[in-house]
What we know:
Chain A is an all-beta fold. Chain A has a domain at 2-63: CATH 2.40.50.220. In chain A, 0% of the residues lie in helices and 43% in strands. The radius of gyration of chain A is 13 Å and the shape is elongated. Chain A starts with a strand and ends with a strand. With 93 residues, chain B is mainly beta. Chain B has one helix spanning 60-66; strands at 2-15, 24-30, 36-44, 53-58, 76-81, 85-86, 91-92. In chain B, the strands form two sheets. A five-stranded mixed β-barrel of chain B has the order 1-2-3-5-4. Chain B has a two-stranded antiparallel sheet with strand order 6-7. In chain B, a hairpin with a 5-residue loop joins β2 (24-30) and β3 (36-44). The interface between A and B is medium-sized, with 30 and 29 residues.
Amino acid sequence: MQLARVEGTVVATVKSRGLEGVRFLIVQPLDKHRQPQGDKLVAADGVHMAGPGELVYFVSSREAAEALPVRFVPVDHAIVGIVDDVQVNQ
Amino acid sequence: MKIGVVSGNVVSTINFPFFDSKKLMVCDYVNPDGSTSGYTIAVDRVGAGVGEIVLIMDEGNSARQMFGLDTGPIRAVIVGIVDAADFGVAEVG
Lengths: 90, 93
């Protein structure tokens, strides 16, 4: 799992079956010091509560779909937690 | 599996139910030369602390099996604490 900052929302009416009601957010992956790292991507919101500005952690690949109500859906990144605090060395 | 070094932890209240009462650690991946590059947030299964060299398993089915689950958005798990690892070029631990 990686840290990310939620930067925006995505609205899509026509979606693959099983994705009804799933929120999509634009996230900027971060390094462990909370600095931007890599390209922005779209992640499904597995906690239903994440919003722009929030620090979150997300899971990638097949496991992302496991965070959603329908398990076999075409999703490769999903937010699974909102971060209260990160403590790292250096 | 990969070798990593625990560099910190993540605290989260609002999360997917699986992560309730799970310990999340920030782990840097260790290269064969002893340097680190990249990181992951892993669920701790062995009681690892900050600064320890650990074994990280990053695969969903194995992770779910460890926790006795059929479903769950979990992938990276700390499965061991490394006493010593000999890469042939540098020694870690």
